[in-house]
Amino acid sequence: NFPSDAVPEDDLKKFLMGKIINNGLLEEKAPGFWGFTHRSFGEYLCAVELVREDLYFDYLEKYAYSPRWEDIFILVASELGITQARAKKVTAYIEKIFAGKGDRIQEDILKKNILLAGKCLSSTANVDTGLMDEIAVKLHRLF
């Protein structure tokens, strides 16, 4: 029972925030600004949401070579290939990464498309074996 002047939602919010903070899930990053204690938890939730909303190609196009997004893209591959076991989708996703975007510096010089495709491949399953072989050959030549 709540006192007549209390709002049950406020008490519930206080209770839940106390549990989240005490369990180390969130921390106050600045006064009034909260974030996950470990960045990887937020990255995982981001990857799951990108797959759920079928937005991973859109974000891949925008942020393919951004270091802050690399782990998210690897987790997307894992979500598609392992959690959901969607062979065609994970293969198409890694093919898109491997093909690149036509960025001369990022792809021709730094080979980021090959490296990211290899990292995604090593973190998932159910990928077409022909694509796996093609990426393996490129990585072998690179190293």
Relevant terms:
mainly alpha; two-stranded antiparallel ribbon; 8 helices; 69% helix; 6% strand
Give a verbal description of the structure.
The protein is mostly helical and 143 residues long. It has 8 helices and 2 strands. Strand 1 (26-30) and strand 2 form a beta hairpin. It is elongated, with a radius of gyration of 20 Å.
Q: Brief description of this entry?
A:
This protein is mainly α and 143 residues long. Helix content is 69%, strand content 6%.
Structural class: mainly alpha
So what's the overall shape?
A: elongated
- Which spans have pLDDT < 50 for at least 5 consecutive residues? none
The profile of the biggest β sheet is: 2 strands, antiparallel
How large is the radius of gyration? 20 Å
Order of helices and strands: HEEHHHHHHH
> Average pLDDT value?
91
Tally of separate helices: 8
**C-alpha end-to-end distance:** 67 Å
Count of β-strands: 2
Strand content: 5-15%
Helix content: 55-70%
Question: Looking across the biggest beta sheet, what order are the strands in?
Answer: 1-2
Topology:
Elements: H1 8-22, E1 26-30, E2 33-36, H2 39-52, H3 56-63, H4 67-83, H5 87-99, H6 104-109, H7 112-122, H8 129-142
Helix pairs in contact: 2-4, 4-5, 4-7, 5-7, 7-8
